[in-house]
Write a structure and sequence with these properties.
Length: 211
């Protein structure tokens, strides 16, 4: 019986609540009468009320169908038949595991978006190698001054790229923000968001990009 969940009919449940309220009212009234005893006549009134309330309680108890043995020993096993009559054991419904995503973190990128992405990456590679080469070749103070001047041009190019990606120029972009910007700039669409599978002809000029 422990750790089990049962279903009770609404009407049966409501009847039990009404009986509990009724018995509470009788007990409360009896206590009220007992508290107002002043003479022998009041005692007889309380005894008479107690007799009537006892009869009502006995009638209700018989109607519940609780075995008298339960009153003596309090063994829940004696309630087996009553539980079978009033309750139904709830059958737990297993929670379905979410289906694994068929296309996890995969995107469809238009052909022009892919070419734009390649162009951005190529631009950054060229800037990096140009700067690395100039650093490795710099030997004199004059060389470093030229490099410093050239770096200003690199900064302008990077700021332009930042603006095109929608990134703030005054901070290092976090990876998730950068990903969102690239997805937006190059019009990437999650493959799992495509409602209907596209024919190969529909993907002509497009690429599938996987993280």
């Amino acid at each position: 019986m422990k750790n089990k969940i049962y279903i009770i009919d609404g009407k049966t449940y409501l009847n039990h609540i009404n009986d509990e309220v009724h018995l509470y009212g009788l007990l409360h009234q009896l206590a009220f009468l007992a508290g107002r005893i002043k003479d022998e006549e009041d005692v007889f009134h309380v005894l008479d009320a107690a007799k009537r309330y006892g009869e009502i309680a006995e009638e209700k108890f018989q109607g519940w169908g609780i075995p008298g043995r339960y009153l003596v020993f309090g063994d829940p096993r004696d309630l087996k038949d009553l539980m079978a009559k009033e309750l139904a054991e709830a059958t737990p419904v297993p929670v379905e595991e979410p289906k694994p995503k068929k296309y996890k973190d995969e995107y469809i990128i238009p052909g022009y978006g892919f070419r734009m992405l390649v162009g951005d990456i190529h631009h950054l590679i060229v800037l990096y190698y140009s700067l690395a080469r100039r650093l490795s070749e710099a030997e004199t103070e004059k060389d470093f001054l030229r490099l410093k001047k050239k770096a200003g041009g690199y900064e302008k190019v990077l700021k332009k790229l930042y603006r095109s990606l929608g990134l703030p120029e005054d901070s290092n972009a976090a990876q998730d923000i950068l990903e969102e910007s690239i997805i937006r700039r190059h019009n990437l669409v999650r493959l799992e968001d495509v409602e209907e599978p596209q024919d190969e002809g529909d993907l002509e000029g497009d690429e599938v990009w996987s993280d």
